[in-house]
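Sample entry (322 residues):
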Amino acid sequence: MTADNKSGESRAEVKAKRDVQFWLDVVMKLTVPLGAIVAAWLANHFEQNRANLQLINQREQAESSLRATMFGQLIAPIAGPGGSDADSDPVRYAVLAQLLTLNFHEHFELRPLLQDADDRLSKYKGTVAPEAILTARSNLRQAAHRVIQRQIAQLWEDQVAVCTPAASMETTFQFVSDPELEESFGQSANSASVLVPSKELKSFSISSPDCRDTLSILFDKPDFSAERVHVLITPASSATAIADYRFDFDLTSFAFPFTDNAVLPNGNRFAFFIKDVSELDDTGTSKIMRVGLRWFPQNYYPPTERPTDYKEFRKALGSSGE
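Predicted structure, serialized as tokens:
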């Protein structure tokens, strides 16, 4: 190797070392300002998150305080130390019951309160005009229907299995006050909507979405003016009769899915509720009542309950349960 080649290689090595040293110097000089920028950004980011959390906590505290104050002011005239003014002013009593229902339906079982308010209105013989009494009773039911719609809207859909009788998450039963109008409705092509005949007692078999339960449902004595119907539920097959469950109750417009529901031995949960009662003509003599049967999703617990089997609850959440 000649001296010129050695000299060229030495100059190249020296140049490479100088380039490396140059970039190392550049990186070292930029490290401090870049670190300061990153530190400032992280500090600002965490500060912003902390401020957002504080804002959310403050809003939740303010809302909780407002709701607590509101609940106290609403319940005091109904069940406070001074007693209730329901006998002297049942309309105001009904308004307070509506406000409690619309704002606190997820936390309390309010059916007895609404039923009591409606009963007081129906028996009232005071100075309030009959039209005002009818309006107050109608408003009670409208508030109840609004709450039912809210609660049903919070339930999601599970996958429905294929079985006989057909399974579905929700089934609607229709009652017509005038038997002559039943033929005009006929049987809906949708299996989730069923017409209940008024001239005969007929039981309906309804399967749960997972097809593990089949209910035999019998309706009797629908009262269109009071929005009430009697419901009898028993197991529909001998395979499930061993559980020996039976539900016999009067369904009213004041039954809410989150509180007025039933749990079967295997954990399936369902609720009956009155969707609406509508007039079919201008005279108001012909009416239709729609009653809904809604199955709850698997592993769903209403807000008023806590799971009794915490191992299964943790399993449903994806935890090992250990």
